[in-house]
Design goal:
about 475 residues, mainly alpha, Amino acid/polyamine transporter I, disordered N terminus, disordered C terminus
């Protein structure tokens, strides 16, 4: 990269450091909780029976090992761009860096786009409206434009909205747990089901647990989004380790308690393939509780939170990699007044709107049916590479103290992630790999465009763009 390019980018306005420990904790908890736990409990129970809590625990263990690697890297390099930055520093291969960036960005945008459609659908249910598909699409698009406006307004406003949305979605889960405990204490539950393993078809126990964990892991992703906010966090080297581990612990406890209440109160057959398992749990435990009227609105807040956080992550990731020279320079512009990466926000929103239109016009598309599994598949692949990158980067010394993940945990984390990625061991459906493959092909095409643009601007692809 030429010195003039570096000077031009250094002269750009810098991101505003507005996130403290409490806001970061709510950001992480809100991102992990998201909408997964509201829909995945029944599908996990369908794979392993009453021991639905076990896959959530295994997913938490895998996430925790990977979180240690992320903590070493984010405290060592407290910059935006997250996994893509770490992979580039470790391997210095432009193509690998771009694909990593693209995969993470794509998972965030896809999740946010689908969340927006869920927001529109829940809006119709909450108000008792039979919305046609076109109306759902338009509401979803309008919602994403609102998310863009909040994101553009600035990180303080975005994280402030995240606080409100996180508290609302957390209240729904606490409500499920309290009502579940009330039913268990009153003898209206069967705790013996909690230790009952039931595997579908001819699946052996290990494969069934792996398949269920692959589903449950989608509910544990989100902690990695926070590293993309490093440049907007106050003293990230000091606060990230404690806050990230605390956030993972809180969400793991909530997931385990929710799954135990669910399988103890509702028979496994009723939970399996249930699109609203937590509604069924509360209706069974407290038939007079108006959950049918309340939960759609809580779900709206939950998916709104997921959409906002994912779009914040995607825009900051594009901004960070543009500043590092891996993506076109226009994506690294910061608004002089709002101090937000406005061009990256507009670009990611445009992609999201296109995806919403495609999903809405093709409601039976695999991207709707297997979104959770495909997202976790892509991110687990990235996590495996990050666990390897942290070991490679041990040879790179920095001039400040930072968190260390040790030598054993990253190795175990990489192996565990690969176990949940490979078709032989993970039990994933073929459609997840087909969708992931299609996204990777699109990524390769975009890399070629970026490579040509870099050559035109005089940036050599093999040259490290990381300052």
């Amino acid at each position: 990269m030429s010195s003039s390019t570096v000077k031009d980018r250094d002269a750009q306005p810098q991101l505003k450091r507005a996130i403290g420990p409490k806001l970061l904790l709510l950001f992480i908890v809100g991102d992990i909780l998201g909408t997964g736990v509201y829909a995945l409990t029944g599908q996990v129970a369908a794979e392993v029976g009453g021991a639905a809590w076990l896959p959530f625990l295994v997913a938490f263990a895998v996430a925790l090992m990977t979180a240690f690697s992320y903590l070493e890297l984010v405290t060592k390099y407290p910059q935006t761009a997250g996994a893509a930055l770490y992979v580039h520093k470790a391997f210095g291969v432009h193509f690998v860096t771009f694909l990593t960036c693209f995969i993470v960005m794509c998972s965030g945008i896809t999740s946010a786009s689908t969340a927006s459609q869920a927001f529109a659908a829940n809006l119709g249910v909450g108000f008792g409206l039979e919305l046609p598909n076109t109306a759902v699409m338009l509401i979803a698009m309008g919602f994403m434009l609102l998310v863009m406006a909040v994101n553009f307004r600035g990180v303080s406003e975005s994280v402030g909205a995240n606080v409100v949305l996180t508290l609302v979605e957390l209240s729904g889960l606490v409500m499920v747990i309290l009502i579940g405990f009330w039913a268990i204490a009153g003898g209206d539950a069967d705790l013996s089901r909690v230790v009952l393993f039931e595997t579908p078809g001819d699946k052996h126990l290990l494969l069934a647990v792996s398949t269920a964990t692959s589903l449950a892991f989608f509910a544990m992703v989100g902690f990695e989004d926070s590293v993309n906010m490093a440049e907007e966090t106050k003293d990230p080297v000091r606060i990230f380790p404690k806050v990230m581990l605390t956030g993972l612990g809180i969400t793991a406890v909530i997931y385990v308690l929710v799954s135990i209440c669910a399988v103890a109160i509702v028979p496994i057959g009723e939970l399996a393939d249930n699109e609203t398992p937590l509604v069924t749990v509360v209706q069974t435990a407290a038939p007079g509780f108006p959950i049918g009227q309340i939960l759609p609105f809580i779900s709206m807040f939950a998916v709104a939170n997921s959409a906002l956080i994912n779009m914040m992550m995607a825009s900051r990731l594009l901004y960070g990699m543009s500043r590092q020279g891996v993506l076109p320079a226009f994506l690294g512009k910061v608004h002089p007044k709002r101090q937000s990466p406005y061009t990256a926000i507009v670009f990611t929103t445009a992609l999201s709107l296109a995806l919403i239109a495609w999903v809405s016009l093709s409601p039976e598309s695999p991207i709707v049916a297997v979104l959770g599994g495909t997202t976790s598949l892509l991110l687990l692949s990235v996590f495996a590479v990050v666990n390897i990158a942290v070991l490679v980067l041990r040879r790179d010394r920095v001039d400040h103290a930072h968190f260390r993940a040790g030598r054993i945990l990253p190795i175990i984390g990489a192996v565990a992630c690969l176990w949940l990625v490979l078709p032989v061991s993970s039990g994933r459906g073929a459609e997840q790999y087909a969708l992931a493959g299609g996204l990777l092909v699109l990524g390769v095409l975009l890399w070629l465009v970026t490579f040509i643009d870099n050559r035109r601007r005089g940036v050599v692809a093999s040259e490290s763009p990381v300052r």
